[in-house]
Amino acid sequence: MKIHEYQAKEIFGKYGLPIPKGEVVTTPDEARNIAVRYEKPVMIKAQVHVGGRGKAGGIKYCKEPDDAFFAAQEILGMDIKGLIVKKVLVTEAVDIKSEAYVGVIVDRVTKRNVIMVSPAGGIDIEEVAAKTPEKIMKLGVDPLLGLLPYEALKLARFVYPDIKIARSAGGVIRKLYDAFVHSDASLAEINPLVLNNQDDLVALDAKINLDDSALFRHPDYENLRDLDAEDPAEMEAKRNDLSYVKLNGNIGCCVNGAGLAMATMDLVKHFGGEPANFLDIGGSSSPEKVLAAMKIILNDPNVVVILFNIFGGITRCDDVANGMVWAVEKLNPRVPIVVRLTGTNEDKAKKILEKLDLSATSSMEDVVKMAVNEARSVV
Ligand code: GDP
Ligand code: MN
User: Of the residues 12, 63, 139, 202, which has the fewest C-beta atoms closer than 10 A?
Assistant: First the structure.
């Protein structure tokens, strides 16, 4: 789950990280009031779940309270990379001597939490990694020992040669690591970590991605969810207990089981097609779930064919077939459907599908080839 900068800063604050004071608002008047109260220049910052807000015009420096009013007026309602700004953060402006990067991610290859630091902050870390990888220092944290103080100091020294500043940056890195671990994040990032004219460190920006699978351990995080900012199709899928991830291809995939869904996408690619989505309707699929799945797939305008790949174990093929009949009657799909069904109640299912003039194959390879050919004939 992605959360907003102001929410990430709240969490960072609880772990003792230095964050500038700020408040989130939804109207220009409130923005002005805060600027009046702070009695100093403020930044108005768009709260949307994407980076690069600065470049997109979603961050403005405001010397006077009236500037804050007009900046908020301009930024609220702005479209940043397809997301509409509904809230802005009003935060005290910080003077900047240098900008660094500090982040923690889960690295699947080394199976460790990896801390990354760079003196080249304020820009995309991917860009730094691609163009000047020598400006990044990485450390995989031992899961049993945790982050050791000297390791944090070593990372900090890479960014700040001055030992006094490095000591304080070492503290920032340790607190960030604490915040990352205890909030069950998959990513925690300060970009930029700013050194101001008084040589104090400030987390000017904050990003945390929370691990969905660990949210049950943090009931208080549920109200951090911003329904406006989530992908509507993925929300709809979640409501119906389906796992859905939108991709950029044109073959809509409807599969039972995450492993089979991955294998289906691999095979689609193998035969030269492009999946429009990952969709796992789950192990015990009811007709209702099939209807919901078809609805989500058909809402994607790129989809030119729907590929069903059902391996009936606990899932009963006739349940899925009934769902398909129901969905076709209700949704009147604009695209052809190809079906592979095998396993529990396969014969019953095939009879049911005759009603739709659909023939189901038992071979995964055949059905994927059919889908790819169908997609090719359309494009
Ligand atoms: P992002 O573009 O979405 O990553 O948003 P950031 O919060 O990282 O801000 C982008 C850039 O705006 C920073 O790298 C700074 O250069 C600038 N910026 C943001 N807040 C301040 C501030 O308080 N003072 C100054 N001088 N610049 C700021
Ligand atoms: Mn940033």
Answer: 63
Per-residue model confidence as pLDDT tens digits over 179-192: 999 999 999 999 99
Active site residue 177: no
Catalytic hit among 101, 177, 221, 244: 101
State the Cα–Cα distance between residues 306 and 335, nearest whole angstrom: 7
For residue 126 the two structure tokens come to 């991917």
Q: Is the CB of 22 under 6 A from ligand 1?
A: no
Q: 238 near 259, Cβ under 8 Å?
A: no
Q: Residues 5, 189, 346, 374: which is the catalytic one?
A: 189
Tell me which amino acid residue 154 is. K
Backbone angles phi, psi at 307, to 5 degrees: -110, 115
CATH for 231-373, options being 3.10.50.40, 1.10.3720.10, 3.40.50.1010, 3.40.50.261: 3.40.50.261
In angstroms, what CA-CA distances link 9 with 37, 67, 133, 184, 338? Answer: 20, 24, 28, 16, 48
Model pLDDT for residues 315-351, shown as the tens digit of each residue: 899 999 999 999 999 999 999 999 999 999 999 999 9
Residue 189 among the catalytic residues: yes
> Closest Cα to atom 24, ligand 1: which residue?
94
Q: How far is the CA of 28 from the centre of ligand 2 (A)?
A: 23
User: Under DSSP, is residue 123 helix (H, G, I), strand (E, B) or coil?
Assistant: coil
Most informative mutation of 43, 80, 83, 128 for ligand 1 (most atoms within 8 A of CB): 43
Listed residue (40, 16, 38) closest to 25, CA to CA? 38
Helix (H, G, I), strand (E, B) or coil at 148: coil
Beta bridge partners of 269: none
